[in-house]
Design goal:
With 939 residues, this protein is α+β, with helices and mostly antiparallel strands. 44% of the residues lie in helices and 19% in strands.
């Protein structure tokens, strides 16, 4: 007894000593694997060797210049300039930059892109094959031209005006319109309110070319630019190339000062009511913006601690709100409280809630009360212990897969360093520091953070929602609620600590009775005594991951009773809210503290599925949950009613909204008004009863013998086998071996051409043309449909976007289906000016006719094939690839990993193959030809 009494104080003193050993101001070493340098002209460069993926690299230019730097006559030109960077430069006239990269498998939009924000503009050439030195030099030359040598010709500028105008039209959504109203109050008095990136249409359509050139030469300069390159290359050689190519770029003489843009402080609380006719939900928010501490370029232990405490704070509040919702008495549909970044140099503490219709008062009161609960009583140690444990689990998992960190993640760190002077440390050092810091953090320390973040100044009340059919809080009402609720005593939160095991009973299991080696996949197939078939492949691509996927034929096709279809289609979403086994959703989360394991189920049209993922050490936990998914699913009446009531509110909110009307119209027309096409409305929800959910679930997720289980991941075969025998082997079998039923849901035959009108606020038409043809399935044709879609995308980019300035972009998708019938589809869609829809739509058909008549060029085909082969090769070192390959093999009987079934076919394709397929596909294809237009376009 004495030994125990002595031991505890000694342990306590040891812990205190351990904590005191941390020098909170000590900076962690900078990441030694990232080379940072600066050229004589002031340009910064970041270089790092990384092999995820192998033989690939990403090339970035980061500019500390964005929309905030524009003059009034340049409003929108920072973004316009981003577009112009792809329309001609010193060494790449016209669109040759795009075509040059596409010849190396770098796709425009996918791997070649850019974005403009208020404070920065960033260009990227990602996932570039770098085995050829000439490709590296090409990418560097493009970066070189972006920095200082854009052509910016009058002709190119004028052609791009239409594209930007159409991008404005596409982005002019209800959410964007609400945000603009709110930002006027949230960032009142600042430059952020004056510049919204996309800009002023009057400026975009009428500015003089010299105006954009002035902006370019003033702000796109060496001292405000950084090059960031990460990938599978020799860093020393790359650094020399940087010096050779970029040193000669001249620095701007007498450069204008790059200002920091402040948000004016205010003692009074601002108010904003933002409404829009197409808004579907009401939202209440109380925000405080405050000046964040400037970064020092280093990361100290205190920085690590501050970041962790912020994460813990946000997570614990999120968990509390989730409990309120799951208990069924929440006065809101969703809510969040916490702190996060706002704009450069500023953070925000926000209390927000999505209100039930006409219950904004109750929602605002509720989030203020939850905030008060933290202010008055803080968090419990048991809450903190759970988030600490989960954080440590995540960090250690991240460390094990550090070699799977992709190029873009490293570049994000470089970008933060250049733009905001954030420190860069290695993952290894961060995890080691976090493991040292986390034990020292107390619940009181985390709770006290709110005193720093939540004060009476710099606050804004934001109310938003529909402009019709809802009564919103007035400014005085909102102020009265805040005054009456803040500081009012609330009860402390009670944390119901849950512990226990997922499975209490002993499982008999069943043995493997047959083993089949699958050398082509480096896998093995086991058949168990209960008839279950399990395929296992050990893979350590992701060292801390094991994935499971199981499927069985049937799905919703098994139900002729239309009253069962709504429940069958929504089983997955509803059971996810019920919990599992003996635990409701709240308790299950607590029981799984410290474990990275999860499972889910799905019921599609033709198949049902069960899936799971875990770390190797939590593999058994995942297998226990898989067993419970079959044998002990949970059906929670309270959780069901909560989710159903939320969906009923969604139905009310969506009623009469043009987006819902368009979605319903497309669903009905595309399935030829089949009775199995059910619309999301009150009658639909009435059919989703708990009894029906349970009936469908128990019918579909049962019978081990009818499922094929596939396991891929970093676990030893003998361990996997033992877990399979114990848990999957304990699932009973019915030996029914079902097949899906063809319910004859098809699109309309022939050509259906319609113009449909909707009460849209934005003068925008959507053109949608879809071709479908039932033809015999072949692998070759399956690849050709996708290749054709990509070629058409590239052609429409030129004809409809660039030459006509008619749209921001044309989306083209090519799909093939083997079940229930062999069918191929190509769909084309774009937004445009309603006055031009009828004029632009024929261009979709024109490019198809050209291919039928004249074929495609070798260059067009090579661009698409090279990109497809590159993407396929990159995917092979990931568990997901092998899961997909094995699933295809067991569902379709095709080994897609065999070169003759993919690479050899792709490399053998000729322009004639594309032309012949185009002729076969479009001949006698059924066509859906639609224009979705605003009511204002009616003649």
């Amino acid at each position: 007894m004495k030994r125990k009494l002595l031991f505890l104080p000694l342990l306590f003193l040891c812990l205190l000593g351990y904590a005191q050993q941390i020098n909170w101001n000590e900076a962690l070493p900078a990441d030694s694997k990232t080379l940072v340098g600066k050229l004589p002209n002031g340009m910064t460069y970041y270089l790092r060797h990384n092999e995820e993926p192998k033989e690939r690299a990403s090339f970035y230019i980061i500019r500390n210049a964005g929309a905030l730097l524009e003059n009034d006559d340049q409003d929108g030109l920072a973004h316009f300039l981003e577009h112009m960077a792809f329309n001609g430069s010193k060494n790449f006239p016209g669109n040759s930059m795009i075509s040059t990269l596409e010849r190396h498998g770098v796709s425009f939009g996918g791997n070649l892109n850019a974005y403009t924000a208020h404070n920065e503009t960033v260009y990227n050439i990602s996932s570039v094959p770098v085995t050829d030195e000439a490709v590296i030099d090409t990418c560097l030359l493009i970066l070189h031209d972006w920095t200082y040598y854009l052509t910016l010709s009058d002709k190119d500028i004028d052609e791009e005006r239409g594209v930007i105008t159409e991008e404005y039209r596409t982005r002019n959504t209800s959410a964007a319109r609400l945000q603009k109203q709110q930002l006027a109050a949230l960032l009142k008095g600042s430059q952020y309110v004056e510049r919204d990136v996309i800009g002023d249409l009057n400026v975009i359509q009428n500015f003089k070319p010299q105006t954009i050139r002035d902006f370019y030469h003033k702000w796109y300069r060496t001292d405000l630019q950084a090059i960031a390159i990460v990938g599978d290359f020799d860093v020393a050689k790359m650094e020399q190339k940087i010096k050779d190519i970029f040193t000669s770029i001249p620095a701007v003489k007498n450069p204008a000062k790059r200002p920091f843009y402040e948000i004016p402080s205010h003692e009074e609380t601002y108010f904003c009511l933002a409404t829009d006719k197409e808004a579907t939900s009401s939202r209440v928010e109380l925000v405080r913006i405050y000046r964040d501490e400037d970064n020092t370029g280093k990361v100290t232990y205190q920085d690590i601690k501050d970041g962790l405490m912020q994460s813990f704070y946000n997570t614990m509040l999120s968990n509390r709100i989730a409990e309120i919702i799951q208990r069924g008495n929440a006065p809101f549909l969703g809510a969040s409280i916490g702190v996060g970044g706002m704009v450069r140099g500023y953070a925000g503490y926000s209390l927000s809630a999505t209100a039930k219709p006409n219950q904004e008062k109750e929602a605002l009161e509720a989030v203020i009360r939850e905030n008060e609960r933290v202010i008055q009583h803080g968090f419990t140690e048991s809450e903190l212990d759970r988030v600490k444990t989960n954080m440590l689990t995540s960090l250690r998992s991240m460390l094990k897969d550090v070699d799977k960190t992709n190029n873009e993640q490293y570049i994000r760190d470089m970008q933060a360093n250049f733009l905001e002077n954030a420190g860069m440390i290695s993952t290894e050092d961060y995890v080691a520091a976090a493991e040292k810091v986390i034990p020292t953090i107390t619940a009181k320390e985390v709770s006290d953070q709110v005193k720093k973040w939540w004060k009476a100044d710099n606050r804004v009340i934001l109310i938003s929602g529909p402009s019709e059919g809802v009564t919103h809080l007035t400014e005085q009402e909102a102020r009265d609620i805040i005054a009456a609720t803040e500081g009012k005593p609330v009860e402390a939160y009670t944390d119901n600590v849950v512990s226990g095991s997922l499975i209490a009973e002993d499982l008999k299991g069943s043995k493997v009775v047959a083993t089949k080696e699958l050398p082509q996949f480096e896998a093995v197939e086991w058949t168990l005594e209960n008839g279950a078939k399990v395929v296992f492949r050990k893979a350590d691509f992701e060292k801390d991951n094991v994935a499971l996927s199981a499927f069985s034929a049937g799905g919703t096709s098994m139900y002729a009773d239309l009253d069962l279809l709504p429940a069958a289609s929504n089983v997955s979403a509803f059971v996810a809210a019920y919990g599992l086994g003996d635990y409701d959703a709240i308790s299950l989360r607590k029981v799984l503290t410290g474990k990275k394991a999860g499972t889910g189920i799905g019921i599609g049209g033709l198949y049902e599925s069960v899936s799971g993922s875990a770390t190797p050490q939590d593999f058994e936990t995942m297998m226990q949950m898989i067993y419970l998914r079959f044998q002990k699913p949970r059906f929670d009446a309270k959780a069901h009613e909560v989710l159903l009531s939320q969906n009923r509110i969604r139905v009310q909110q969506m009623e009469g909204q043009p987006q819902k009307m368009m979605q319903d119209s497309l669903s009905l027309i595309s399935t030829d008004y089949n009775p199995r096409t059910l619309l999301f409305n009150e009658a639909y929800l009435d059919k989703i009863t708990l009894d029906r959910i349970e009936k469908v679930y128990r019918d579909r997720i049962c019978d081990a013998s009818d499922f094929t289980f596939i396991i891929v991941g970093n676990v030893e075969q003998e361990v996997a086998k033992a877990m399979v025998e114990k848990y999957i082997g304990s699932i009973p079998s019915l030996n029914r071996h079902e097949k899906w039923v063809d319910r004859k849901v098809r699109g309309p035959k022939g050509k259906v051409e319609k113009v449909l009108y909707f009460p849209l606020q934005n003068p925008k038409s959507t053109v949608l043309v879809s071709f479908t043809h039932e033809m015999k399935y072949t692998l070759k044709d399956g690849y050709l449909i996708d290749i054709l879609a990509n070629i058409l995308t590239n052609r429409y980019t030129k004809s409809i976007r660039e030459e006509q300035g008619g749209t921001y972009g044309v989306g083209v998708s090519g799909n093939v289906s083997r079940e229930p019938v062999n069918s191929y589809n190509i769909s084309m869609q774009f937004d445009c000016d309603p006055a031009k829809a009828a004029e632009l739509k024929p261009l979709l058909y024109a490019e198809v006719d050209k291919i039928i008549k004249d074929g495609v060029t070798t260059e067009e085909l090579d661009k698409v094939v090279k990109n497809a082969l590159k993407e396929s090769e990159q995917s092979k070192n990931h568990n997901g690839y092998w899961m997909s390959v094995l699933t295809s093999y067991y569902q379709m009987g095709i080994d897609l990993n065999d070169p003759k079934n993919y690479e050899e076919i792709m490399k053998s394709l000729t322009p004639k193959d594309v032309q012949d397929f185009t002729k076969r596909f479009f001949k006698n294809a059924d066509v859906l030809d639609l224009i979705l237009a605003p009511d204002s376009a009616k003649k």
